[in-house]
Amino acid sequence: SGVREVAIPDQVETIQRYAFCSCKDLKCVIFGKRSRLTRIELCAFGGSGLESFTAPAPLRVVSQSAFYACKKLRWARLNRGLEALGTEERPEAADEVYFGVFEASALEKVRLPSTLKKVEYRAFFECKSLEGLTFPDGLEKIGMMCFSKSGLKKIAIPSGVTEIPLNAFYECG
Asked: 53 - beta bridge partners?
């Protein structure tokens, strides 16, 4: 698709699986002030040309692979109310693979909301330009391989995190 910009109508509640996947020319997504978007599903923007993303206020669910391999995505601002980045959903077919929400993207900066409780499996895997991140105090869970092979240089883990799983920060330089 040659689409460069898309305005999501306020009444849209879900951006379904693969909706804008591999839209290489897509640079901008615009949400109205009265957006009712609550869910972005699997690989909805994966491999697209998005350069930045600002989540609308009602967004509650961002599924695995939502922004996977967005090679131009430099920053993301996630809204207050979002409790989990990624989901615990599992592939339906044996040959299906799920990636992290922002895995292999070009993220340099992410604003995480104070309401965030979980950062799931591989969320920032191979985000090599992501050097720093501020976790909200209420964070409880960091998923397996969440920041592996990322560019992180300094982090502070909140006291509410009860477990740091296998390979959470593997090969972070």
From this structure: 76
